[in-house]
Amino acid sequence: MLANVIISTLVVCIPSTFLAVLIGVPAGYFLKVKRFKYRKMLIRIVYTLSGLPPVLAGLLVYILLSRKGPLGFLNILFTKWAMVIAQVILIVPIVTLYTLSGLKNIDRVLENLDYLNVKGRKRYTAIMKEYSKEIMYAIVLGLSRSISEVGGVLIVGGNIEGSTRILTTAIIFEITKGEFSNALLLGAVLLAISFTFNTLLQILQGDVVD
Amino acid sequence: MKKGKYLKNLAALLAFILVATFSFLSFSYSKTYKIATTTSIYDSGFLDFVTPAFEKKNNVKFNFISVGSGQAVKIFRNGDADGIIIHEKSFLDELKKEKLINGYTAFVSNYFILVGPKDKKDLFKKVKSVQEAFALIRKNNFKFVSRADNSATYIRELEIWKLAKVQPNFGGYIKSGQGMGMSLNLANEKGAFILTDEATFYKMKDKLDSLDVVYQNPKEQVLTNIYYFAYSPKKAQLSKFAAYLKSKEFKNLVSSFNRKFFKKEIYRVVK
Description:
Chain A is mostly helical.
């Protein structure tokens, strides 16, 4: 039972973080480097959305995916897909915002690359190498947010045992039943997973703290 | 460059995890039915106890979405669930009128009881009906926790206030807006009275140290709590489950559930 909940947690949180980083990091880079109309407005929106309440994101995704909603034909409400969508919506602004503020001195880096005449794919690889630590922070931030989120995934996932029940929603469920010791145990597991993730990422990347 | 190698490794690892998890995501049972259910009968563990036998025999899987009756109806009405289990008949009559269900099956019942602080139990000794008990709570301005959440229990509570000719807006009236279990915890902490179904209360009783039953009466119509199952006509296969809920096998499971968790007859099969 517990194993199932843990697997479901990973199956929801890892892809949502991955997708969020895939969208958020380029979006942050774009907002930082490119100059275009409404740029400041867009950045303000990203700031606002980074504080989007999970229950609101959950509600929006619910309405979107309900069979009576615009994407109802997909028939994915109360599945892990719906949970991933809700989490991506929550995490993308956070990752974007972090990337935006993490790309310090990017102008000088770009200037150097121009000087060395590095173009195309190589240019982006070089930038990613230069900011690999920042990207790692973004991943850690996304993972932490997705693994601790509960309001949104509860609404769109439905907390179905063996399917959409993840650690956080299982904790809520145990509290509902008054089983506080079970809830606490699940909380400890959640922390342990979070710790493992961060350790793994640090081993892959080298220490996050200097 | 060392850094580059790490990045490559990381990318490969992430790609692998992504593929692995998404293939897992796509995996699903051959026949899965979503059933929106009221919290009380699910949280007590009852549904998880009686359905596996049916699931195994018919090679189907039920996914229960446990929410308040009001929300369960909404989920079902939107077509996001194939079946529904609730204990508020008026909701089902509405669904029937809208032709969203053909009918419904009453399958199990228990009773609503009034619980409250142990030390106030004696005050209710001479009470002859639940509305009288409610009136007494109002008269003394005792604390009373109401779920106030469009659930079947809340609807029943309002019915009783009506019978007692009392407006539930006195000082001690606390609106929790939460499910049965959380509301019971709240009543326990606050030393308040609360209307609850027997099953949830007895399942949690060892954690509700300050609460005890202050009034119960199986003969009062307003305290009878019947659970119904209904399904969308588009999912005709679910008629099998409706039939199962009337079977001898189901009846036996109900008695073993009672024996295992309550040591007395809490859930009663509806004939």
